[in-house]
Amino acid sequence: MDRRIQKTRQLIMNTFIGLLAEKGFEKITINDIAERANINRGTFYLHYVDKFDLLDKCIETYVELLLNHCADTADTTLNTSAFQSIFEYLEKNFTIYKLLLSNECFGLFSSRLYAVLAQTVTEVIGIKSENNAFLNDVTTHFLTSGFIGVLEWWINNSMPCNVQQITTQLLFLLEPYTKHLVAR
């Protein structure tokens, strides 16, 4: 992709995030974005259909960044280093993830993150499950819901405990379920 296109899209997205923090999604207009980014409305529409499209691309970008970080630093087992890596990344990028979770923009961020994590958990279960009687769908949704719930609680409550504490507690709670998923 052309660097100018990338820079313009990043400028629009950063402007949108700033406005999201100030006004909330419902009150943002395309004029607000164009004015703040110092671009024409036409330039906005060259890159995005409307503010809902921009929101969707923003959510997609930040879910992808989180997952790319996890893929770069964690293996596919549910272990201390994998969870710690996720929470360290969230801690470093707290502001944007809190914004996306607290605005909830119709629950889109949580839903997208849930879908991607459920797919990852399904792949791990499919590869590493030692007990065929274990219902993979139930396990997938239980583990994904538990993790997303803890992640949302931690972010929405402004990280009431440190990364090590949340990692330790989460692994303690998931241990009865994750022991079935440990690599052979």
From TrEMBL:
Q: Which InterPro entries match?
A: Homeodomain-like_sf, HTH-type_Tx_Regulator, HTH_TetR, TetR_C_Firmicutes
Q: Which superkingdom is the protein from?
A: Bacteria
Read off the PROSITE patterns from this record. HTH_TETR_2
Q: Which UniProt keywords apply?
A: DNA-binding
Q: For the HTH tetR-type domain, which residue ranges apply?
A: 6-66
**Residue spans binding DNA:** 29-48
Q: Which GO terms describe its molecular function?
A: DNA binding
* Protein name, entry field: TetR/AcrR family transcriptional regulator
The organism of origin for this protein: Clostridium aminobutyricum
